[in-house]
Write a structure and sequence with these properties.
This protein is α+β, with helices and mostly antiparallel strands and 479 residues long. Helices cover 30% and strands 27% of the residues. It folds into 2 domains: 3-204 and 388-473, Aminopeptidase; 205-385, Alpha-Beta Plaits, CATH 3.30.70.360. The chain is built from 9 helices and 26 strands. The strands form 8 sheets. A 6-stranded mixed sheet has the order 1-2-6-3-7-24, with helices on both faces.
């Protein structure tokens, strides 16, 4: 461990002040999370305009986050609606940054609480964005606010500027950080509170593609619709078909209703989750497709596409698609079918793959194009970001891991993930909490799912970890 990140006697006094601060502000933290959760900040490019590049709702969430930062004593900047930040100015030209985001994935179905409010229940906060990433965003602002107070109390500036960055496009494209890096210098070190503790030093490649059927919809299947975003396993999928609803048999995860005019609507229910963590999920598109095939509810051309869908949803490690791969840093590849839509009379199916260093996006593309050809479909690559990895040996990462270890009472080590965070866009960066890998009650949902929730005590401890970590980063020269 770097010598200047070792705990000192001053740290004991710092931690006592941090404890008192967190107890003082916590109810305000929760209410500020509520203020952001109330905005349905899903990307809406159809209504984008200057100052609102991702639509009005993401712009409103960014505005509210900056208002919170301003109230907390940070010097705020709105970067034309792409992103914003709040600063605690430092003595030199270097800066340490955090980055979170105020946009969300679509609400989806299956909620038992109001997704656009914070429900406080038995030590958890429930609502869309409480975990990903509005809860951690507010925590990062209050971490910066602690240092704004310290500067005011002492009359001395921080050694380096502290910048709390607020993204507005993390869930769909990260065009916010692309804009930022075109207009502002990179931070000397950055961490993103949008993942898990202890610390993430690498991220799999993130790959998106789309299959399009040659078959024209309408022979038996009028419409297929499922999923909310390409980077989530769908928990619900539906088909509008030419069939007598009363004649269709019951099946697990399937509900059938009469849609009139000789049509039936078939609804399939699965168990959704994030594309990078498919273990334990059930893809509703797969449930739907298997039912349609088993009951013969398809024309010949439609059957070919359904067979493709069955292949795509039969595994999450890419084995049924011929793209399975693994390495010692990241483990196995994942690949899931995300959204299915009916557009211009044809069916479109997106896929999301998170891949290790043992394969490439071009290899995945080649295999999936061949798969498409065998099922009379076309295939298009939508995005391909290569794996990100940094050796966890820098003084900055040592400082973060040491702080988390002290608070958690464990010997913490860095690890890698399948998800893609903001960290991969920066040269000296990592993802650092705030979530803990531990059991939660069944009624607490995961990120991107219904009843998304976060443990309050985990967030409170994260706020303490972030403050002490930043204090230690301020002692480093940031070479």
């Amino acid at each position: 461990m770097a010598e200047d990140t070792q705990p000192t006697t001053d740290d004991a006094e710092l931690k006592a002040r941090v404890d008192a601060y967190v107890d003082e502000v916590w109810d305000d933290v929760v209410e500020d999370i509520r203020t952001l959760v109330q905005v349905e900040s899903v990307e809406d490019l159809e209504h984008a305009e200057p100052g609102k590049p991702f639509g009005p709702a993401p712009a409103e969430a960014l505005r509210r986050a900056l208002a919170i930062a301003d109230r907390l004593g940070l010097k705020t900047t709105n970067c034309e609606g792409y992103l914003g930040f709040g600063d605690v100015p430092g003595a030199d030209g270097k800066y340490v940054a955090t980055i979170c985001h105020s946009d969300i994935v679509p609400l989806g179905l299956g909620w038992t609480v109001d997704p656009l409010d914070v429900t406080r229940r038995e030590g958890y906060l429930l609502g869309r964005g409480t975990q990903d990433d509005k809860g951690p965003l507010v925590v990062s602002l209050y971490a910066a606010a602690f240092f704004a107070r310290e500067v005011e109390r002492s009359g001395k500036p921080l050694p380096h500027t502290l910048r709390a960055m607020i993204g507005a496009n993390e869930e769909t494209g990260m065009a916010d950080v692309e804009y930022y890096l075109e207009h502002y210098p990179e931070p000397d070190f950055l961490f993103s509170p949008d993942a898990d503790f202890p610390l993430i030093c690498g991220e799999k490649g993130v790959y998106h593609g789309k299959f399009t059927s040659a078959a024209v919809a309408g022979e038996r299947i009028v419409e297929l619709d499922g999923g909310t975003v390409p980077n989530a396993i769908p928990g619900l999928a539906t088909a509008l078909v030419r069939a007598d609803a009363a004649s269709l048999p019951a099946a697990e995860g399937i509900a059938v209703e009469d849609a009139g005019d000789g049509l039936a609507r078939i609804k399939a229910t699965g168990k959704g989750g994030h594309a990078s963590m498919p273990a334990g999920t059930v893809n509703a598109i797969g449930v739907l497709v298997r039912y349609l095939l088993d009951q013969g509810i398809c024309g010949e051309g439609e059957r070919t596409f359904l067979e493709l869908e069955r292949t795509l949803t039969a595994s999450t490690d890419g084995s049924t698609m011929g793209i399975a791969s693994a390495d010692d840093k990241f483990g196995p590849l994942t690949c899931i079918a995300g959204t299915v839509r009916t557009r211009d009379g044809r069916f479109e199916q997106t896929v999301d793959s998170r891949y290790p260093t043992s394969t490439t996006g071009s290899r995945i593309s080649s295999c999936l194009r061949q798969l498409a050809q065998r099922h009379d479909a076309t295939y298009d690559v939508l995005a391909d970001a290569v794996p990100f990895y940094i050796e966890p040996t820098s003084p900055e990462i040592h400082a973060l891991l040491a702080t988390y270890s002290e608070y958690a009472g464990v010997d913490a080590h860095a690890f890698t993930i399948g998800g893609g965070t903001y960290a991969r866009h920066f040269k000296r960066a990592c993802a650092f909490g705030p979530h803990e890998d531990k059991p939660t009650p069944e009624w607490v949902g995961i990120e991107h799912g219904p009843d998304e929730g976060v443990n309050e005590e985990d967030l409170k401890r994260a706020l303490k970890v972030y403050i002490v970590s930043i204090a230690r980063l301020m002692r480093l020269p940031l070479e």
